[in-house]
Automatic annotation (TrEMBL):
Residues 1-133, 155-290 form the EamA domain. It comes from Prochlorococcus marinus (strain MIT 9515). One of its GO terms (cellular component) is membrane. Coiled coil: none annotated. This is EamA domain-containing protein. Belongs to the EamA transporter family. The keyword Transmembrane helix applies. Pfam families: EamA. The lineage of its organism: Bacteria, Bacillati, Cyanobacteriota, Cyanophyceae, Synechococcales.
Length: 291
């Protein structure tokens, strides 16, 4: 039960944080936002880092550092970039592919079986996602000029990469929980450290502390998004990885697109019945695959 509650809590926290991060992508690069949010989140959970036995858990620590590089360093950077280009709802809709990929990864690498009825779910997902992606909508690109999308699937490379790296990072975390006694707090902190090291190297050790450039209201909102989306979100996600099979956990975490519908009117205009229908069908397809 704690895993199920944690999954829905993570979905709600992450979804709300996404809308705050999206507002900052109009001013700053996605990699800068990712780095700063990870540094602040790492400092908030710093006490958990001092209780880790490095010698006893050296293999697990290395695995988690890699998980942080892949899932947070790369995955979150592509995710934030996707928020900037195609918006929150569509990014989260594509992210619903992650349970499918997670289920397949779990079956291949850690013997979590995929049910036969998953083929029905795959058909529903493929059809629903195809229809969602083909619908016209006003998008925002790097120069912040509105464009109308029509059969331009190249813009979806960022969310697809985000899915790939996020699931890979989740798989590595799940493996660690199967073979170690590290707590979700500790694994969260190690993953954040891995992401920070990676991003600092990518940035050539140049950190853009843009937070001081924000007004007080934006600073408060950004700090809130870090606590909700990074600290609380990743912590709850780690609890999910610890207590639930990878595929089931990702399915519950994939409720984000449904939750995002409550916010999307503020960002992308009218939410049609068709969007609601096929987003719901997409999620039901995922349930058929995993549950």
């Amino acid at each position: 039960m704690i895993g199920i509650i944690s999954a829905f809590g993570a979905a709600i926290s992450w979804t709300y944080a996404c809308f705050i991060w999206r507002s900052q992508t109009t001013k700053y690069k996605s990699i800068d936002i990712n780095l700063i949010k990870n540094i602040i989140a790492f400092l908030i959970f710093l006490p958990a880092f001092f209780n880790i036995s490095i010698l006893t858990n050296s293999k697990s620590i290395l695995t988690l550092l890699l998980s942080g590089v892949v899932g947070i360093g790369l995955g979150d950077t592509f995710y934030i970039k996707s928020l900037q280009i195609i918006g929150t709802r569509r990014t989260l809709s594509i992210e619903t592919l992650s349970p499918l990929l997670a289920a397949l990864s779990g079956e291949i690498f850690i013997n979590e079986n995929l049910a036969l009825r998953s083929y029905v779910g795959i058909a529903i997902i493929s059809t629903s996602l195809f229809i969602l992606l083909r619908q016209r909508t006003n998008l925002v690109v790097d120069n912040m000029n509105p464009i109308t999308e029509h059969n331009n699937f190249k813009i979806y490379i960022f969310p697809f990469l985000s899915v790939l790296f996020a699931v890979s990072g989740g798989l590595l975390s799940r493996i660690v929980f199967l073979y170690s006694d590290l707590s979700p707090f500790q694994t969260t902190e190690i993953r954040l450290l891995g992401a920070i090291i990676f991003l600092i190297i990518i940035k050539n050790f140049r950190i853009n502390f843009f937070l001081k450039k924000l007004n007080n209201n934006d600073q408060k909102r950004f700090l809130l998004s870090i606590f909700l989306g990074t600290n609380l979100g990743i912590l709850l996600q780690q609890i999910v990885f610890k207590t639930l099979p990878l595929g089931i956990g990702w399915t519950l975490l994939s409720t984000s697109p449904v939750i995002s519908l409550f916010f999307a009117n503020k960002e992308e205009g009218k939410i049609t019945k068709s969007i609601i229908l096929f987003t719901t069908l997409l999620f039901l397809g995922l349930c058929l695959i995993i549950l």
